[in-house]
Amino acid sequence: MTVAVVQFGGSNCDRDTVQALAHLGIDADLVWHEDGLPEETTGVVLPGGFSYGDYLRAGAMAARSPVMDEVREAADAGTPVLGICNGAQIGCESSLTPGAFTTNESARFQCERVTLRVENADTPWTEGFDEGEVVEFPIAHGEGRYEIDDNRLDELEADGRVLFRYCDEDGNVTPEANPNGSKHSVAGVLGDRDSVAVLMPHPERVSLPDIGSTDGQGVLRAFGE
Ligand SMILES: NC(=O)CC[C@H](N)C(=O)O
């Protein structure tokens, strides 16, 4: 049982992710994208970073790597797939998940801790949380503003495919608590299956007790089942 953490040129959260998974007793390995997914792959993480220097649009180049065809096949077969930050951008650029992550409203790179409200606790990524629970994760992105057409967003909302929303410390979803101008304050969404998810905040950066918080463990535990 091995989770493949797929490295592209410019990935930089790959090792942190392996370490965070290992801390939870989940076997994970770095996989260079040109090498393809190993046969024993039981989960896939598209990690954060700056693949191809965010050239064109963040995630646009990595989404065209042949390994993404394998990731899609694995996802279609029910293998859990999680895109984190740049991995979320790659997930949307490759249509594994709906919508797109575009330039922050501030037009700046933002690195800060944010609070998130768990919108649907009935998914593998959130079953360790309560619905409405407020958790704190870091963000570190320049292109994290979630965009999607209104009809599609209404469908996602109706289907419970919004996983996390930016909120204030009391769980109120307000424009002030939305760090990047994401539509409906969306911070994470599910793909067609609930085994596929992407989120802009970084659960792997809040998964090791030594770093001070373990709020992110619930997300990564999905790979332990
Ligand atoms: N931390 C990350 O993965 C960064 C994502 C991407 N490079 C951005 O700035 O939007």
Structural summary, described in words:
Part of the FGAM synthase complex composed of 1 PurL, 1 PurQ and 2 PurS subunits. It catalyses: L-glutamine + H2O = L-glutamate + NH4(+); N(2)-formyl-N(1)-(5-phospho-beta-D-ribosyl)glycinamide + L-glutamine + ATP + H2O = 2-formamido-N(1)-(5-O-phospho-beta-D-ribosyl)acetamidine + L-glutamate + ADP + phosphate + H(+). It is found in: Cytoplasm. Its main location: cytoplasm. The protein has helices at 14-23, 67-76, 86-93, 150-158, 217-220; strands at residues 2-7, 28-32, 41-46, 81-84, 100-102, 110-118, 134-141, 145-147, 162-167, 186-190, 196-199. It is α/β, with parallel strands linked by helices and 225 residues long. The protein has a single domain (2-224), classed as Rossmann fold (3-Layer(aba) Sandwich), CATH 3.40.50. Strands 2-1-3-4-11-10-9-6-7 form a 9-stranded mixed beta sheet. The protein has a two-stranded antiparallel ribbon with strand order 5-8. The model has no long low-confidence stretch (mean pLDDT 97). Bound molecules: glutamine (GLN). Glutamine binds next to β7.
The helicity comes to 10-25%
Largest sheet: spatial strand order: 2-1-3-4-11-10-9-6-7
Give the CATH topology: Rossmann fold
Low-confidence stretches: none
What's the number of domains? 1
H/E topology pattern: EHEEHEHEEEEHEEEH
User: Cα distance, first to last residue?
Assistant: 10 Å
Give me the secondary-structure category.
alpha/beta
CATH class: Alpha Beta
Bound molecules: glutamine
Inertia-based shape? globular
Major β-sheet, in short? Answer: 9 strands, mixed
CATH superfamily: Class I glutamine amidotransferase (GATase) domain
How many helices in DSSP terms?
5
Strand content: 25-35%
CATH architectural arrangement: 3-Layer(aba) Sandwich
